[in-house]
Amino acid sequence: MIKMTQRINYSKRIDSPLLLELKNVTVIRCGKKILDSVSLSIEQGEQVAIIGPNGSGKSSLIKIITKEYYPFAETEELVIKIMGKDRWNVFELRKLLGIVSGDLQQTYCRQIKVVDVVLSGFFSSIGIYYNHNITPEMGSRAREILEFLEISHLENRLICELSTGEARRVLIGRALVHDPHVLVLDEPSNSLDMKALNSFRESIRKIAISGKSVIMVTHNLQDVIPEIKRVVLIREGKVFMDGKKGDILTDANLSELFSLSVKVFEKGGYYQALV
User: Fold this and answer.
1) Rounded to an integer, what is the distance from CA 211 to the centroid of its chain?
2) CA 70 – CA 67 distance, rounded (Å)
3) CB-CB contact of 257 with 233 (8 Å)
4) What residue ranges of the chain have pLDDT lower than 50?
5) pLDDT single digits (tens) 164-197
6) CA distance 94 to 154
């Protein structure tokens, strides 16, 4: 079987040099600014971590990308471009995005076979329905993804019977099966034990090495795999810092971000923060 890393060159699939371009984006929800004049750009093929405390607005950035949130007001200075376009049919856009979140995992706590969970990524659905036309090519692609993630042995298991870590890897398969331009991970390691976290990170590393864009949204430094070279810090709805990982993940920066004294350690390309 041809491996994903051999078959796909992710870095040259679209003409636009930018995967994401945001300028002066403000979002107000329930009378509160949750994003405040945010400007951010991400290149195609780039792996980026967006880090911030709970409630800082980092997940709201993802909802701007997925068109779940819209900016407060349109002005001449406002820019929201995804893959070079400022207008998208939301259903067409979501075909180009691979999303993995804890909320999605809770939604998938059902009696659905793993292979059907992965196949549902072709239709952005929760499971497979009678009107879904599953082609032989789709079946082959789903099994290729399961092999790539080293979970082929789970193919006929029910997702509700899996461990949290196994289920999270199945959802990564669902996110990848339709060959999206970017994999977006929103607080991906929540509820994972040490062994599951290690397996999860190895899966994400394989994806990043293949050249696909990865946007990692987290408050946990342990999620930041070595392949991620750029870190964006978010605080109170604003971009607090943005730059090279080694320059950003320092004691002083993380202490200011989380408003407490933090000591940052690095080992083997992974970072950890201790209070």
Assistant:
1) 14
2) 6
3) yes
4) 1-14
5) 889 889 999 999 999 998 999 998 888 788 888 8
6) 26
